[in-house]
Write a sequence for this structure.
């Protein structure tokens, strides 16, 4: 059995909650512990520092919990309920109880698991109508999202270069793992640099007003297609990943559909979004941002696989997924 922090061990006990809980479930990413407990979900940040993300102190985790609540309520006001804490007094843990704070987390309403977009994809039931519903949510979101002068600068080639090229610095030492061969690494890096050298391409997007305070992590695992569309878990930990070209968001979900072999639906999603938003300029950014997003997902797969707290089967799956993402990124570079 994996050894977790004491507060997580506490939260895995059904008796730790004031509301009814018959069983708990723990889900891990490279940056979070997510505990499913009855009708609610509790998300806790791991004390990690990857450079682009720093949750290394309790105060920082508290700050980013507050940001997570505020930012995600833009699209899911009914889903993100409250910030919570685990407290410790006289050797006993409690949820929002007495004693000093051990950890801060987010309390969320639990969504119907069978309506998660990833589950619908897995069952082969994703339809064009689902993508239409997502587009109907996204267009007004982007239209009303902040696109002020400070944010616009994050769409220029220099700023985008920072996000894209740091991936190669962070993965240089793991070339040879998770399907990231030297050939794939060099091909994607060269392609990325070539596009980034065309600064006017990025300037056109800025001038067109297409750089906004976006979601930043728009893929099927963060979408629930229930009685209405819930798009949750946006990037809260680093503004430069959220302040971006709308194309970077849209390309992420299109890439995700490609990853699952749904190329026809991916093409439909892009053409319909462009038709309804009037954003014809998105086409010239599509493959670049698809490549970037696929490479990041591959990188995350490697990070997750090498986390000592991640169970062996999860680590193996993450490594296999990383290989597929790197191969997909290379296909866009071709």
């Amino acid at each position: 059995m994996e050894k977790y922090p004491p507060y997580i061990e506490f939260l895995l006990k059904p008796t730790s909650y004031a509301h009814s809980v018959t069983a708990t479930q723990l889900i891990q990413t490279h940056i979070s512990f997510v505990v499913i407990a009855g009708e609610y979900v509790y998300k806790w940040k791991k004390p990690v520092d990857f450079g682009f993300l720093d949750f290394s102190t309790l105060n920082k985790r508290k700050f980013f919990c507050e940001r997570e609540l505020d930012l995600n309520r833009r699209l899911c006001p009914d889903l993100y309920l409250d910030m919570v804490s685990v407290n410790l007094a006289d050797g006993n843990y409690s949820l929002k109880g007495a004693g000093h704070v051990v950890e801060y987390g987010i309390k969320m309403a639990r969504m119907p698991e069978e309506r998660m977009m990833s589950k619908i994809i897995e069952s082969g039931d994703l339809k064009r109508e689902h993508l239409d519903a997502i587009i109907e949510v996204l267009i007004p979101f982007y239209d009303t999202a902040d696109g002020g002068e400070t944010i616009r600068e994050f769409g220029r080639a220099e700023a985008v270069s920072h996000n894209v090229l740091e991936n190669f610095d962070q993965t240089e030492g793991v070339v040879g793992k998770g399907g990231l061969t030297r050939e794939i690494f060099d091909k994607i890096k060269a392609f990325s640099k070539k596009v980034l050298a065309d600064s006017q391409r990025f300037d056109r997007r800025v001038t067109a007003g297409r750089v906004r305070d976006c979601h930043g992590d728009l893929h099927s695992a963060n979408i629930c297609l229930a009685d209405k569309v819930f798009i949750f878990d946006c990037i809260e930990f680093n503004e430069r990943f959220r302040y971006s070209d709308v194309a970077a968001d849209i390309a992420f979900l299109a890439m995700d559909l490609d990853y699952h072999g749904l190329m026809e639906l991916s093409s439909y999603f892009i053409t319909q979004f462009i038709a309804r938003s009037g954003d014809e300029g998105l086409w010239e950014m599509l493959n670049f941002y698809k490549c970037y997003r696929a490479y990041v997902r591959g990188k995350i797969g490697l990070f997750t696989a090498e986390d000592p707290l991640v169970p062996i089967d999860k680590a193996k799956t993450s490594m296999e997924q990383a290989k597929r993402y790197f191969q997909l990124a290379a296909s866009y570079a071709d």
Observations:
- The mean pLDDT is 96.
- Residues 6-110 form one domain.
- Residues 9 and 48 are 19 Å apart (CA to CA).
